[in-house]
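Researcher: Here's my situation. A collaborator sent me these components and asked whether they could plausibly form a single complex. I don't have experimental data yet, so a predicted model of the whole assembly would be a useful starting point for our discussion.
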Amino acid sequence: MPAFKALSVGTELPTRNCTASNVSLFLYNAAIWNPHRIHYDESYTLNVEKHPGIVIDGPLQGDWLTQVVSGWLGDDGVLLEFEYSNRRASYIGDHLTASGRIVALDAERNEATLELEIRDARGEVTTPGRALVRFTR
Amino acid sequence: MDTLINDDIRAWIGRRDAPQTIEVTRRDIIKYALASEQQLPRYLNGDEAPPMFLFGADRPLTALADLGPDGLRQDSLLPPLPLKRVMAGGVKQRYHRAIVPGDVLSITRTVSDIFEKQGASGPLIFVVYDIEVRDAGGALVMQETQTRIIR
């Protein structure tokens, strides 16, 4: 629950640990009405599309990045812009960490620019992102 | 320099779907919020949609008989391409206001670019969509650029 005046460039946001299970991925894909078999059919995923495991949806990883922002911002501001790029695939069982930090502050507009990323257990960035938020208090 | 993208494919740039209208319900927001393990009460209670909610909500609902062997529907805005495996590539969104239960949204999708790149494991085709979301009064709710990668 930060106040804008207390922020400084370089401040790290609280991280979010991210994993997907068969159940969570099934429910997510049901909620977004996504029947792509790489998210639930293991033999198809391995043998036909040749992935090493059931694939975690790219937009779910995007969502996890928004949660780094919303978990930090709470009700103190609004998300104005958000972007992410799926660079490397992630799979069920992977232990991912979503993180973010302040890279710019605009005191006139009460806006903060955040750099975001998801890293896998080896420390490689799978999903970089960026967000612009405006504080309303 | 392009080898995979011919003029027939390039001609898809600029094509757009008929606007799709969706009604946002609290139950749909709650389903999405629980499945994506949101933390904020306003999302979990369905008072407001999480930022990525529309990624699924704008998906056309198609008969199961129309799904292909990969489970995906034939997308009316995906040209026939020499590569077949479709992956999510990324999203860039600008939010004009929060989405709440009762919103009736009109969503328009346009193919804005098609290009190719050499990836680490072979050629990749990028198909880029501009998505515009407006409310019942015609005001902008969200603008999105969405990229799909075909390998």
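Model: Some features of this prediction you could bring to your collaborator: Chain A has a mean pLDDT of 95. The two ends of chain A are 10 Å apart (CA to CA).
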